[in-house]
Amino acid sequence: MTDVASVAALYRYPVKSMLGEELAAFECDGDGVIGDREFALLDAGDGRVATAKQPRHWRALLRCRSAGSGHSVRVTLPDGRTVPAGAAAGPLSELLGRQVVVSGARPDGAVVERPDPEDILVRGLDAEIDAPLLEIAQGTGGGRFVDHSPVHLISTATLDALGVDALRYRPNIVVATPPGTPAFVENDWLGRAVTIGGVRLVPTLPTPRCVVPTLEHGDIPRAPEALRGPAQRNRVAVEGFGVLPCAGCYARIEVPGTVRRGDTVRIEPEVTAH
């Protein structure tokens, strides 16, 4: 028997750390959702990837929205202006107070600053906190600016238990799980084959939660509980990263294809061979 669920919502984030778009369907290739995290801002001074994980510098990105794919990606700024992603470096540098460039190709060894999110909650968004460098996309090839593996999933069981809107956790796929499903069920999906329509995934890691879910998202206010909930209820050993607050899971793609809202999600009972 397999666990059966369905796709509740699909999201794509064309520019890393900006608000994205909800879609009725998207295409996946071996490196993830086509058009997802296709672009990112790079700090013109040190070349690091801009992410609201370091809110002291980059949290204003979550006041911007990106939509589209390829040459059609557009960025909507907080003042309502919409500009092509390729022409956004000037206004974004002005917004952020730091010189940035817009890149559509992830540099080799690309890194982000990731201060401890619980320290940020205690000391404040503008505190000068030690920010270790984290290499992104360690679980995927290609050139997209994903945090780790190609796809990020989270269940309605986890979201409902935490009382947090999906948009704060920035998943690609929200899985509608049956009534009675326990929170953090994604921990049990690791290594098991997951089929959605014609796409086959294998969850690889629990998703560590940074400070981003707690920040303002557009007009939506801050929500410290988006980190405190996982910190209190689901600290998990994440291979290579330590014991961290987690919600959701990352996954690699074994068979690419199309995922549609409403598709059946089947989770095999046995762990697959690696």
UniProtKB/TrEMBL annotation:
Superkingdom is Bacteria
Tell me which residues make up the MOSC domain: 127-268
Pfam families given for it? Answer: MOSC, MOSC_N
State the InterPro entries in the record.
MoCF_Sase_C, MOCOS_middle, Pyrv_Knase-like_insert_dom_sf
Gene Ontology molecular functions: catalytic activity; molybdenum ion binding; pyridoxal phosphate binding
What is this protein's record name?
MOSC domain protein
